[in-house]
């Protein structure tokens, strides 16, 4: 494993960077070279030495920045790192072009193995939730606890509002969408994404909105942006169709780690009705429902998510169950 560090932007990449990457106070970025993939890793200085490691995995179209609020909340209980999946954030595309859920999981496993940070407290949102589930199922030795925020697990009846995202995986749709929306401003695009992902987009601060616009502008200039989006969306759809031992629900049943499940009542991408099914599939699970949250509860209510994680740490290893609705 090779690594380069910087207080602002990692130095190593196979493609030129087009703009600075935002690094929050107390955070740093580094670029890690692994077999077949280079990952950008965002870390936060823990409150003290010796805290157990945690790794965070973002969703489709997201980046490690999505976890910054929660990483700050948990700085006193875990030593936090968040990865940019291949082709997202500041990580270049994978050498083999594999954007499947398995491909992303392989990248996470390679990082945990190379960094020697397992077993870690593993967090995942949306696509990252599917990736984290697969990691926990196939490499239980790497996962201490599993926290899933609106994980992208197979649904028979997809919400209507989630259909356009799924269609990105159809060959040619991403290129068509790019042509049809070429006149859209970054501000319009960000408002659309926030309207889809947040329970109440009005709660986003002007500063957070501006930062999101700047990040989108940067990423839209990357030559592989839409390819990474389309292929990863296709990877989710393909994972939904897998049966047998490779099916995500079957793998959820194999997870041994204590699992925290967080679902938002206003989620427009992952059906809220899937919460109970997930709680039944993961054998050692604790379910927390946030009626006012959308798809990214860790960004909307990081304090509530952090509190639920602390409760997971406090419960006996063999305890599970369902927590009452959490309201902020």
Report on this model:
- With 328 residues, this protein is α/β, with parallel strands linked by helices.
- 37% of the residues lie in helices and 18% in strands.
- The protein has a 10-stranded mixed β-sheet, with helices on both faces.
- Strand 4 (53-57), helix 1 (68-73) and strand 5 form a beta-alpha-beta unit.
- The termini are far apart.
- 47% of the residues are buried.
Provide a quick synopsis of the model:
With 328 residues, this protein is α/β, with parallel strands linked by helices. It has helices at 68-73, 101-115, 127-138, 163-167, 173-180, 186-197, 206-220, 225-241, 248-254, 274-281, 297-300, 302-314; strands at 2-6, 27-34, 37-44, 53-57, 79-84, 120-125, 143-149, 259-264, 285-290, 321-322.
Characteristics:
Rossmann fold, 12 helices, alpha/beta, disordered C terminus, 328 residues, globular, ten-stranded mixed beta sheet
**Beginning-to-end CA distance, first to last residue:** 42 Å
If strands are numbered along the chain, what order do they take across the biggest sheet? 1-2-3-5-4-6-7-8-9-10
Query: Would you identify the regions where 5 or more consecutive residues have pLDDT less than 50?
Result: 4-20, 161-170, 172-177, 320-328
Q: What is the helix tally?
A: 12
Please render the helix and strand layout as text.
Blueprint: E1 2-6, E2 27-34, E3 37-44, E4 53-57, H1 68-73, E5 79-84, H2 101-115, E6 120-125, H3 127-138, E7 143-149, H4 163-167, H5 173-180, H6 186-197, H7 206-220, H8 225-241, H9 248-254, E8 259-264, H10 274-281, E9 285-290, H11 297-300, H12 302-314, E10 321-322
Parallel strand pairs: 4-5, 4-6, 6-7, 7-8, 8-9, 9-10
Antiparallel strand pairs: 1-2, 2-3, 3-5
Helix pairs in contact: 2-3, 3-9, 5-8, 6-7
Keywords: Hydrolase
Organism: Streptomyces nogalater
Pfam families: Abhydrolase_1
């Amino acid at each position: 494993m090779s690594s380069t560090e910087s207080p602002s932007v990692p130095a190593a990449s196979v493609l030129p960077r087009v703009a600075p990457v935002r690094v929050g106070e107390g955070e740093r970025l580094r670029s890690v070279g692994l077999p077949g993939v280079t990952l950008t890793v965002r870390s936060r200085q823990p409150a003290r030495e010796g805290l157990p490691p945690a790794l965070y995995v973002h969703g489709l179209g997201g980046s490690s920045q999505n976890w910054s609020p929660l990483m700050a909340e948990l700085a006193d209980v875990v030593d936090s790192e968040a990865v940019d999946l291949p082709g997202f954030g500041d990580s270049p595309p994978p050498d083999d072009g594999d954007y499947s859920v398995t491909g992303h999981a392989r990248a996470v496993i390679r990082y945990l193995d190379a960094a020697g940070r397992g077993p870690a407290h593993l967090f995942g949102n949306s696509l990252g939730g599917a990736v984290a589930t697969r990691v926990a199922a196939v490499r239980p030795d790497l996962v201490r606890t599993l926290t899933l925020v609106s994980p992208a697990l197979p649904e028979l009846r997809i919400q209507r509002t989630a259909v356009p995202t799924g269609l990105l995986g159809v060959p040619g749709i991403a290129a068509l969408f790019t042509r049809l929306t070429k006149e859209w401003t970054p501000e319009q695009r960000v408002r659309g994404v926030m309207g889809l992902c947040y329970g109440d987009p009005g709660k986003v601060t002007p500063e957070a909105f501006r930062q999101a616009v700047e990040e989108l502008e940067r990423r839209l200039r990357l030559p592989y942006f839409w390819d990474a989006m389309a292929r990863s969306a296709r990877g989710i759809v393909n994972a939904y169709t897998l049966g047998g031992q490779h099916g995500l629900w079957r793998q959820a049943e194999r997870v041994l780690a204590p699992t925290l499940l967080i679902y938002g009542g206003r989620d427009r991408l992952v059906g809220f009705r899937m919460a109970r099914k997930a709680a039944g599939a993961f054998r050692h699970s604790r379910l927390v429902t946030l009626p006012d949250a959308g798809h990214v509860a860790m960004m909307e209510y990081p304090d509530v998510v952090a509190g639920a994680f602390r409760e997971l740490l406090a419960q006996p290893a063999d305890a599970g169950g369902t927590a009452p609705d959490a309201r902020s």
